[in-house]
Amino acid sequence: MASYVLRRLLGLAPVLLAAATLVWALLFLLPGDPARLIAGGQGVDSEVIDSIRAEWGLDAPAPIQYLRYLGKLLRGDLGVSYIQRRPVTAIIRDCFPATFILAVAAMLIAAGGGLVLGALAAAHHGRLLDHLVLILALLGTSTPVFWLGLMLMLLFASRLAWLPVLGYGMDGAIVPFLGIRLPEWDHLVLPAVTLSLVSLGAIARLTRTSLIETGSAEYLRTAAAKGASALRIFVYHALKNALLPVVTFVGLDFAALLGGAVATEYVFAWPGLGKTIVRAIALKDLPVVEGCVLFLTVVFVLVNLAVDLAYLYLDPRIHYGRAAA
Amino acid sequence: MRFRPLMVGRLLLGLALAAAVAPGLACGPGPARVTKAEQVFRFRLREDPPTLDPALSTDNLSGAVLNNLFRGLVEIDPGTLLVRPAVAASWTISPDRLTYSFRLRDGVTFHNGRPVGARDVEYSFMRTLRKETNAPWRWALDPIVGARDFTEGRSATIEGLKVMDDRTVVLRLKKPFAPFLGLLSLLPASIVPREVYEDPSKAYLRAPMGCGPFRLARWEQSNFIELLAFDGYYGGRPALDRVVARIIENRASATQEYRAGGLDSLDEVPPPDDKALQEELGSQILYYPYLATGYIGFNLALPPFKGNVKLRQAFNYAVDKKYLWEVLIPGYLPAHGIIPPGLPGYDPNLPGYPCDPARAKQLLAEAGYPEGRGLPPIALWVNTSEDNRRVAEAIQADLKNIGAPISIKEVDWSAYLKAVEGTPEAPGQAQMFRFGWFLDYPDTDAILRPLLHSSNFGPAGNHIRYRNPRVDDLLDRALSLTDEAQRAGLYRQAERVAVMEDAVWIFLNYYQSSTLFKPYVKGVVPTPLGEFRIPLERLRIEKSPS
User: Fold this and answer.
1) I need a surface site. Which of A87, A293, B67, B294 has the fewest CB within 10 A?
2) Residues in contact with B254: Cβ distance below 8 Å, sequence separation at least 6, in sequence order
3) What pTM was estimated for this model as a whole?
4) Does the pLDDT value for residue B23 go beyond 50?
5) What is the pLDDT of residue B3?
6) Within a 10 A sphere around the Cβ of A147, how many other Cβ atoms?
7) Residue range B239-245: average pLDDT?
8) CB B148 within 8 A of CB B101
9) Which residues in chain B are contacts of A227 at CB distance < 8 A?
């Protein structure tokens, strides 16, 4: 298995190269002059702009700029933000934890809620509850996050005043050694619930379908014949087998949440990575866009790897390594 | 045996709820702690300031924070726009208006407690002028003799900057330049401590330090910037103990946060068509003039506007500005000229061009296009935005009404700028374009010179390529006067020529600021410098005890 993991990690290199090249090329082709952007607003001397262009290497021909960029990447240097003038790694370090915490909370709600609703629907297959769950799941999946976030905010924060309207809070605890400040828990609830609902609907439907299929499997009848309790049959036999597609979805979806929480972060003023990327694109802060996209590519591949490894536990028939090679 | 997932479902429901709540259980002590006696003011910033280095700042988001952290030799009174002492207690100007001698105030200290001396002024100016700093607005210090030589590396010192003793600095100018004192109030002329700003790791970018009324406590990216009152501020400790700039991009979310009490002021007011919000918050909106003018520029180097003043006047009379700013997009003031209210030289009696379609039609005929016959295709360029589109469509309808059809060309900002600005040598391709000019510093020269002086063709501001020797002369003469009333008179004359004789633009609107303030926020000084320049050191919170 170790060699499998190693192979997968080595496979990351061409993926990163392709992603880096694509992002660099796309951003390079965008109209606008980064030097002018670095200089700031109106009324800037053209001499200052020229001097900035030279300082940041923006006067070099495109191939040279590209090679310099790759060279820096090889040294683990993601560059310096044009706007904030600090290393992109520092920017990612500052804003990724907020996104990660939000995505984890959202995924816990989505997975927990999705499994429960899916199980309920499967147990009442074809009956009212099943239909209700399906409708709810469909609503969850199809409601725009932006609108939903605002509605939840209006109801639970503005009208009922149960929860804060937005933000991360200023007084959360600091994680020892990492120096990362956690959100205040009440600030986390609304964004996490908003972000979770799309995934929750999908997980509920997947769980339901999967359970209905496995529910008729012969091995469950065998287990029952051997005297296993209903709970044991559900958790160890039915759920475990039904979980395989769900885990795949959760893995992929979690990776997507890390990069795709933009709308939620925007509505709730959550200081995360998605918002940082969108703003960097708007401002043409190329090093930040490139760095964040590469970082997310790595995260995506690693999460996928973790999902593949989770299969080992969920399905003993799956083997990675020499036999599979 | 029957399979009973319902029971298991309940179990899972419990687990899911526990999981949902768990992440929060490990977290902090709860809502923000605001003790009853603490004076806290919370305002909204749309996004993080691009920089907190005063030498690099050019935008109002940075200014919103930096103007509270830093001070220069002088500052602009936010209400009257007159220059007043700051770190300098007083100054004298030589009779030839070339030498400025500043006497520093006693007892001014940086936030680290070190006293501010004349050497700090020298260091700060050198830092801004140094080529490597790449200060976008280093031109603010360019009038000083030798500034350019220092920047270009031809001299190790600034010839026109002399430290006479620990409390006296003398600046010598290349030529008389009336707005110079105003330029010294800009952020790039702020005084900074050398021991902090020589740090090769540039820690000062995240932890700026000056001698202003507040000091920076925390800056959490995309979240908030927290300032604390500086006990050693030379002007007396501010009444506010703490200021929090909260980074909230989404306007609708920010409005809800303001309603819920999480913000004490908001830089965006409810849209006029939102009657419910207007009713709830309308009384908390403060409107006040802002130093900016909006216009439709005519490209005077291209046909059909080149050399045809009657056509330009016809277009002016055709546009119904009252409709634009009272019905279509309320909140601006209809303009009759160039110099906005609040600036010296503003002329309330300038007639301008009130809406008069009959006169417009007559002028169109006199211009050689009776009922629009023979008029070549004309495009009005705007950069992509909802407001721009609505304004352009209204103007298009007004012009069609007099028989002058135009098309609208809506493009992204960079393409727009390219078509509008042109270069110093060649005009841009846009025949007509919507533009707004926001003054860099509060001096009438800062709007008339870039936009109208013939030395500023191209990106410097004179996109329309207006050249009138009389206007050039009036602007140049005004620069060498120190009597503000005389200067204002010359600016008024220059404006009258450009507006009434040459009709260089369609004079559209004067901008206004509109800001929401909670009723318990006292000491607000509305300023034409904009909502982010309202001096926070004068604010106080007066909440009735609950």
Assistant:
1) A87
2) A269, B44, B248, B263, B266, B268
3) 0.82
4) no
5) 34
6) 12
7) 96
8) no
9) 1
What one-letter code names the amino acid at B419?
A
Strands B99-104 and B168-172: antiparallel
Which domains are delineated in chain A? Answer: 2-74 (no CATH), 95-314 (1.10.3720.10)
- CA torsion angle for A137, A138, A139, A143 (degrees, to 10)? 110
Cα–Cα distance list, B423 to A37, A263, B143, B457 (Å): 18, 40, 25, 7
Task: Enter the DSSP assignment of B316.
Answer: H
Residue boundaries of the structural domains of chain B: 40-69+212-264+518-541, 74-196, 289-512
CB-nearest to B32 from A85, A86, A170 is A170
Mind listing the pLDDT tens digit for each residue in B108-118?
A: 999 999 999 99
Tell me if ipTM is over 0.90: no
For the domain B74-196, what is the CATH superfamily, name and number? Answer: Dipeptide-binding Protein; Domain 1 (3.90.76.10)
Measured between CA atoms, the residue of chain B closest to residue A159 is: B260
| Contacts A55 to B, Cβ<8 Å | 132, 134
Inter-CA distances, B86 with B75, B97, B125, Å: 6, 21, 16
Higher pLDDT, A124 or B292: B292
Report how far residue A207's alpha carbon sits from residue A209's, in angstroms, rounded to the nearest whole number.
6
For the stretch B369-393, pLDDT in tens is 999 999 999 999 998 888 889 999 9
Q: Is A162 exposed, middle or buried (0-12, 13-18, 19+ CB in 10 A)?
A: exposed
Alpha helix positions (H), B70-215: 118-129, 147-151, 180-183, 194-197
d(CA A211, CA A118): 8
Beta strands in B134-284 (DSSP E): 161-165, 168-172, 214-220, 224-229, 242-247, 265-266
A160 CB-near residues (< 8 Å, 6+ apart):
none
A166/B256 CB distance under 8 A: yes
Write down the mean pLDDT value for chain A: 83
Contacts of B127 (CB under 8 A, 6+ apart): B55, B133, B192, B197
- Residue B91, Cβ neighbours under 10 Å: how many? 18
CB contact under 8 A, B247 and A84: no
Domain covering B40-69+212-264+518-541 assigned CATH 1.20.272.10 in the classification: no
The answer on pLDDT for B51 being more than 90 is no
B262, B244 contact by CB (below 8 A): no
Farthest-apart Cα atoms in chain B, separation = 107
- Which of A45, A84, A269 lies nearest to residue B250, judging by beta carbons? A269
What residues of B are in contact with residue A48 (Cβ under 8 Å)? 134-136, 138
Picking from B468, B471, B451, the residue whose alpha carbon sits closest to that of residue B460 is B451
Which class in CATH covers the domain with range B289-512? alpha beta
Conformation bin of residue B406: beta by default, left when phi > 0, alpha when psi is -120 to 50: beta
Asked if B433 contacts B382 with a C-beta cutoff of 8 angstroms, the reply is: yes
